[in-house]
Amino acid sequence: MPNSAPHTKSLVIFDLDGTLIDSAPDLAAAVNRMYAQLELPIMPIDTIKSWVGNGSLKLVERALAAHKIDDAKALHLAHDIFLAEYARQTIDKTKSYIGVTQGLERLKQAGFVLAICTNKPSRYLPEILAHFGWVDVFELVIGGDALSVKKPDPTPLLHICETLGITPAAAIMVGDSKNDILAGQAADMTTLALRYGYNYGEPIDLMNPDAAFDDFGTLTDCILTYSHH
């Protein structure tokens, strides 16, 4: 695999939505409850799924654009409604993808440091991590509003490396969307992609990650081949 040879890896940074968890059903339900409050027609879950990945404001902006609404005041109002609705039901229908909890345990047992870098607002993360039993799994969790920029900007990834005292060369970025791969490439990290997530309806392989996988178990097997001692 490119740029893995000279470096052993010790840190794995994961995206959250579409990578570790399938949160689209709850995100879509919150968008549709927002629509209902705004007296707008609801949209199918698969349509809403294609808007996920750049944080909540962008999701709501795309949701309004679908109804030809492009207005800063309307966006602000709709975003507040969405955030409240999503806070009300964050984990009702959200599931972790097959093999994720086992894979994370295997990586941790092998000595890897694990972190999360998500564009999801920080306020939702404690409930999600607690729900899946992942509170002690990750050394550091960075939400989309933790810094002044979010993925695809590499800053959050570099911030994680700096905070944990691990060089980007020793890090792997794992994600399902172009934001993850672009951020990882800009940070000069090995990038591994999962094909089952939400990449705006485009195959993630088009972003040229170092490798792409159909399931989390195979991804875990690959990461374990990067010796880290």
UniProtKB/TrEMBL annotation:
Gene Ontology cellular-component annotations: cytosol
Domain of life: Bacteria
Cofactor(s) needed for function: Mg(2+)
Pathway stated in the Swiss-Prot or TrEMBL entry: Organic acid metabolism; glycolate biosynthesis; glycolate from 2-phosphoglycolate: step 1/1
Enzyme Commission numbers on file: 3.1.3.18
Record bears the keyword Hydrolase: yes
GO-annotated molecular function: metal ion binding; phosphoglycolate phosphatase activity
Gene3D superfamilies listed in its UniProt record: HAD superfamily/HAD-like, Putative phosphatase, domain 2
Matching PANTHER family: PHOSPHOGLYCOLATE PHOSPHATASE
Reported function: Specifically catalyzes the dephosphorylation of 2-phosphoglycolate. Is involved in the dissimilation of the intracellular 2-phosphoglycolate formed during the DNA repair of 3'-phosphoglycolate ends, a major class of DNA lesions induced by oxidative stress.
Record's protein name: Phosphoglycolate phosphatase
